[in-house]
Amino acid sequence: RSSAASDVYKRQVTCIGYRNPELLAYMAGTVDQLSGGRLVLGLGAGWFERDYQEFGYEFGEARDRVRDLKEALPRIKARVARLKPRPAGALPILIGGGGEKVVLRLVAEHAQMWNGMGPPEEYARKSAVLDDWCHRVGRDPKTIERTANVGATTPKVVEEWLEAGLQHLVLRLAYPFDTKPLERLIKLRDS
């Protein structure tokens, strides 16, 4: 999580298929302790086939990966609740993805944060779908922080994202790392 001095930090989503859910919860609790309570547990169903191949896991079908995420979330939450010592912070769950029938329902049921993708118009539409899922499961949509990975951008594009409901922009930087877009956004944030 961000410190009081800065709102700049890294968010990463890990594919649920790479680790046993209970082990992942235990590791997250340890990292949260070591970071002073700043960990955001980012989870997703997985989409990058090359990683699966290189790590030695079966890629399978998208529906199977989403089912694994659905089954893992209650296990992770149950294990986190039993950790000793407890996480140092809130240890929010962030779910990355945009599947409207299952993934966004899982966000409404389990997550404190959602990381979406696509252009601002699509993001706004999916955010509205998430709001609908929240209402259907009896949750206030305002309790879910809206985040998105955004490439190099301008103040006008940032405004479009904010109008789409974005609360937390995650700036995507590619190697070789050019930090000028980040510097522009920090200036915009501080102005």
How many strands in all? 6
Mean pLDDT: 89
Uncertain spans: 1-10
Main sheet strand line-up: 1-2-3-4-5-6
Query: Which outline best applies?
Result: globular
Structural class: alpha/beta
Biggest pleated-sheet summary: 6 strands, parallel
Number of helices: 7
Radius of gyration: 17 Å
| Element pattern in H and E | EHEHHEHEHEHEH
The amount of beta strand, in percent, is 5-15%
Helix content: 40-55%
Distance between the termini: 22 Å
What does this structure look like?
The chain is of the alpha/beta class. The protein has helices spanning 21-34, 49-55, 62-82, 103-110, 120-137, 155-163, 180-190; strands at 13-15, 41-44, 93-96, 113-116, 145-150, 168-171. It has a 6-stranded parallel sheet, covered by helices on one side. The chain is globular, with a radius of gyration of 17 Å. It starts with 12 loop residues before the first strand and ends with a helix. Mean pLDDT is 89; it is low at 1-10.
Question: Secondary structure elements and their pairing?
Answer:
Layout: E1 13-15, H1 21-34, E2 41-44, H2 49-55, H3 62-82, E3 93-96, H4 103-110, E4 113-116, H5 120-137, E5 145-150, H6 155-163, E6 168-171, H7 180-190
Helix pairs in contact: 1-3, 4-5
Give a quick precis of the structure.
The chain has 191 residues and is an alpha/beta fold.
